[in-house]
Design goal:
With 181 residues, this protein is an all-alpha fold. It has six helices and two strands. A two-stranded parallel ribbon has the order 1-2. Helix 2 links the parallel strand 1 (8-9) and strand 2 (43-44). The relative contact order is 0.14.
Length: 181
């Protein structure tokens, strides 16, 4: 029973285990629910919390998919504008290829290459472990063997997990756009 309590999020806490429902944990938890990643390191520990989580997911997952779809459409609109600029008479196929390459390289750097460096530095992981976490997260597999901000021996800045959740959302949108392109 105590093991389940330690893994679960409870807004009240108790004398032996204070609440771990701070903004950063709640933001990260909400993000992992609506993105269906589900690392398994955070879960509601009360029946009321579990019921709320079911309804939150019932509405949150489709809303997140709609949000990612709209974000992808917005990014796609910028790509179409860029494509129209590139396809004007006199511009070579090389320029088109270069524009797509810049998009892919920039996204790869922002979402797959640099984040593992940050995670390696903050978490003390190797670059390979950071990349593994990055890929497992953005592929929405979410095994839970590596999760950011969970080492009790480290002091994390309060917004670390929130920024990670934001990175996840934009990384998912970028990947969706890559698949669309």
């Amino acid at each position: 029973l105590m093991e389940a309590w330690e893994k679960g999020v409870n807004p009240e806490g108790n004398s032996t285990n204070p609440s771990n429902w701070d903004f950063s944990n709640s933001f990260f938890f909400a993000g992992t629910v609506v993105t269906t990643i589900g690392y398994g390191n955070l879960s509601p520990s009360t029946v009321a919390g579990q019921i709320f989580c079911v309804f939150y997911a019932l509405f949150g997952v489709p809303l997140n998919l709609a949000f990612l779809n709209q974000l992808g459409k917005g990014l796609n609109a910028h790509l179409i504008t860029l494509e129209k600029w590139v396809q004007k008479p006199g511009r070579a196929q090389v320029v088109q290829t270069l524009a797509v390459a810049i998009f892919l390289i920039t996204g790869t750097l922002l979402f797959l290459v640099f984040p593992p460096l940050v995670f390696s530095y903050v978490e003390g992981w190797s670059y390979g472990e950071g990349f593994y976490f990055t890929f497992i997260t953005l592929s929405t597999i979410g095994f839970g063997d590596y999760v950011v901000g969970t080492n009790p021996n480290k002091h994390y800045i309060p917004v670390y997990r929130s920024l990670t959740a934001i990175w996840i959302v934009f990384g998912l949108a970028w990947l969706a756009l890559v698949f669309n392109v």
